[in-house]
Design goal:
Distance between the termini: 20 Å
Strand content: 35-45%
Shape: elongated
């Protein structure tokens, strides 16, 4: 099993999830709201004539746990779907191996007979 994680802008969350499901057939994702910045280092806002600097921008962290055979495809789909066309700030995607995945309800390891029941 491989854990694919991605930091994406909030506006692209649904687009990324739908693309992964449609193009790879994988369903199941965890979404966590986050704030942060990369090279864009925040943004400057003007409100009622005053300038405000926001160092951290709203993002979302998506986590997919997928079979080894589709991990590269999931990474490619996420990267393509998360792309907004902006110069920077679209986030990152990475994959790491997972040693063990067990269903909390059944106590069975992922992939064992009856685990999805």
């Amino acid at each position: 099993m491989i854990k694919v994680e991605a930091v994406v802008i909030r506006e692209r969350v649904e687009t990324v999830i739908d693309a992964v499901e449609q193009e790879t057939g994988h369903v199941g994702v965890t979404v966590v709201e986050a704030i942060g910045h990369g090279r864009e280092r925040g943004v400057t806002h003007e409100y009622r004539g005053r300038v405000f600097e926001s160092r951290f921008l709203p993002k979302a962290v998506l986590t997919f746990v997928v079979e080894d055979g589709i991990a590269d495809e999931v990474v490619a789909v996420v990267a393509a779907a998360a792309r907004s066309g902006n110069e920077s700030g679209d986030g990152l995607v990475w994959a790491v191996p997972v040693g063990s995945v067990t269903h909390n309800r059944t106590g069975l390891r992922l992939g064992e007979v009856g685990a999805g029941a």
